[in-house]
Specification:
Blueprint: H1 45-65, H2 67-74, H3 79-130, H4 139-160, H5 164-170, H6 177-208, E1 210-211, E2 214-215, H7 217-237, H8 251-268, H9 290-305, H10 310-316, H11 322-327, H12 347-369, H13 376-404, E3 413-420, E4 427-431, E5 436-437, E6 453-456, E7 461-470, E8 473-482, E9 485-494, E10 497-504, E11 515-521, E12 527-529, E13 537-539, E14 544-545, E15 549-551, E16 554-556, E17 559-562, E18 567-570, E19 573-575, E20 580-586, E21 594-601, H14 612-636, H15 642-666, H16 671-695, H17 701-710, H18 725-728
Parallel strand pairs: 3-9, 11-20
Antiparallel strand pairs: 1-2, 3-6, 4-5, 4-7, 7-8, 9-10, 11-14, 11-15, 12-13, 12-17, 16-19, 17-18, 20-21
Amino acid sequence: MNPFQKNDSKETLFLPVSTEEVPPRPPSFPEKPSPKICGSNYPLSIVFIVVNEFCERFSYYGMKAVLTLYFLYFLHWSENTSTSVYHAFSSLCYFTPILGAAIADSWLGKFKTIIYLSLVYVLGHVIKSMGALPILGGQMLHTVLSMVGLSLIALGTGGIKPCVAAFGGDQFEEKHAEERTRYFSVFYLSINAGSLISTFVTPMLRGDVQCFGKDCYALAFGVPGLLMLIALVVFAMGSKLYRKPPPEGNILNQVVKCIWFAISSRFKNHSGDNPKREHWLDWAAEKYPKQLIMDVKALTRVLFLYIPLPMFWALLDQQGSRWTLQATRMNGNLGFFVLQPDQMQVLNPFLVLIFIPLFDLVIYRLVSKCGINFTSLRKMAVGMILACLAFAVAAAVEIKINEMAPHQPDSQEIFLQVLNLADDEVKVTVLGDENNTLLAESIKSFQNMPHYSKLHLKTKSQNFHFQLKYHNVSVYTDHSVEEKIWYTLIIREDGESISSMMVKDEENKTSNGMTAMRFVNTLHEKVNVSLGTDASLIVDEDYGVSAYRTVQRGEYPAVHCRTKKEDFSLNLGLLDFGAVYLFVITNRTNQGPQAWKMEYMPANKMSIAWQLPQYALVTAGEVMFSVTGLEFSYSQAPSSMKSVLQAAWLLTIAFGNIIVIIVAQFSGLAQWAEFIFFSCLMLVVCLIFSIMGYYYVPLKPEDVQGSANKQTPPNPRKYDQPGNQEDKALMVP
C-alpha cells in the first residue's frame, strides 16, 4: 500500500496497478519522444499534470468546504434543505464521471475532454461566485446562479475525474513502468496537498474577510475559481509535450451491452426449448466473445459485494454537512488558535496522511503477528463499524450541546427579560388571574439579569398588564405578546416618571459560530456605529433599539461611533462564540459616551475539540474501508474490468449521498436521533456485508490473471482494446 496515497472517499482513489498483472501490449498510439526531467526517465509533461491536479483539487474542496454554510446563512435555507442540496451536488459529481469517461474513450480523447470540460468548470466557478455577491439581485437570482454554477462545476469536476490521472499514466513509456508507479504517488500527494490547504484556507477567506458587511462568500468561491483557471492554463501550457492517445472505445459500454443482451436473451428463451446455460451471462455467447463474458462474470461477483457500500459513503460525506452544522454550535477557541466551524473538515485529509502509513506499517503488521487472519473483507467490515461508532459519538456530542443550549419557549409560553435603564430600582409585577412577581426583589438600575423568566399565555397571543413601582409610584402599562418568542421589557426614564417598551428578541440567533449584538441608544441624537464592516449600524436617538448584527468572535476595544456633533469610541470587550449581547450607549459620566454590556445569551460552552474523536474514528474507518476495498476489488477482477470497477465504485458514492438526501428530507428526526439512526443503519448494513463476505470465495490473483491469459479475443477492436484499461483505472476525481 502506498503510504503517500490519500484514501479519500470523496476522491475514490485507485491504487496504481502493477505492470506485472497485465501482459505486455503493443502501443495503441504512435510513440513520441518526450523531454525528461533533469535527465531522469520522468517525462517533463507530468509536471504540468501534477500542478493541474493540485490546483483543481484546491478549487473543488475549497469551494465545497464553505458550501453548507453558504446555503444556510447566505441563501437562508433550512438545515435540512442545505444538507440535501449539498449532498445532491456531491452525488452529481459522482454520476458525471461516467459521461466524462464515455466522451474521452469514444469521441474526444483524454486531452480534449480535460480542456473542454475544464472550461465548463471555470465557467461554473464564475457563475457560482457571482451568485454570492449581495449587490447582485435578490435571493431568487442568487439561488438560480448558485444552482447553475454548481451544475457546471459538477459536470466539470466529474467529467475530468476519469481522465487526468490516466492521461498522466499515458505519458510514460512501457519500459518506465516503475517511474509511472512513483508518479502516481506524487499525483496522490498533490491531491492531499490541494485538499488539505484549501479546506483550511477558504473558511478563513469567508470568515476573516468582510464583503458588503457580511461573510465574504464571493471571495471564498472566487479564489477556488481562480485556482481552477490556473489549473486549466498550466495544463494547456504542456500541450506540445504530451503524448495524446486517440480514443479507444469504452469498455463500460461493452459490458452494459453484454449484460443487457444476456438478460434479454434469457427472457426471450424462457420456454425451455433451448438448453440451460451454466451461468445467466452465457446467454450472451451468441453475440459476444467468450473472453468478454468470462471477464464480466468475474466482475459481477465483485459488484454483488458493492450493494451495501453506499451506506458507508452516506455516513462519511456528512463531514461537510451535518458535522459542519454541529460545529457552528460549538466554541472554536482552542487557546492557541481559533477554528472556524467549516475548518474542522481539514482533520480528514490531515488524519488520512497519518493513518495510511500507521495502519500499513504498524497496525496491520501487529495484527498479523498475533496470528489473526485480517482479510480484506474483514478490514472493510471493521471500517464500517468504526464509522458506526463515529456517528454514535457525534450523537453524544449533539446531546451534550443541546443540554448546554438555552431552552426554547413552548406553545403558549414566552421568555421575558427586564432591562431597567431608569436611574433607580423598579419592581415589576405581571397583573392577571395570578399576580406574578418576576423577581422577588426590585430590579436595580442597569442590573444584569441572570436569565429570562417564563410566562404562560392563555392563547397564542395575549395582552399582559404590568405594574412598575418606581419611587413609591405605580405605573401601569400593557404590552401584546405572541407565543414562542423571547422578549425584553425595557424600562426607561420619562421625565420624572418612567415608561416601558417591549422589544422582540426573536432574531437573537447567532450563526456560523459568530456573535450577535444590538444597541440601545439613550443619547438625544442618532449614533452611527462602525463595526469594522462595510456597512454601519445606525441607532436612533432617545432609546432607539437597533437590529441585530453578527460579527466575528474577538476583542473589540475601540469601536468607532459618530454623531452629528462628535466622534467617539466604545469598548465592547470580548465578544465570544455564539453569544448574544445588548449594548446600551449612555453618557452618565464626564468621560463621554460609554457602552454598558449585557449578555442576552451565553457563549457556546462546548469546545469544538470534542469533534476530534468522531473525525478520528470515521477517518480510520475510511482508511480501512476504501483503500482495502479497492485493493480487494482489483484482485478479484481482470485488468480489463478495472475501468468498470471505477465506474461502479463512483456510483456507490453517488447513491450514498442520495441516502442522506432522503433521510434529511423525510425522517423528521432531531439531529441527535438522526445520528443514532445512521449509526444503527450502518451496523445493520455491516452485518449484511459480513454475511455476504462470509460466503464469498475469493479468487487468487493468479486465477484471475490466468483466466484472462487462457483466451485472447482474436480482434482487439471487438473488445474495444481493453489492453489499456489498467491506465483507465488509475483515475481520481
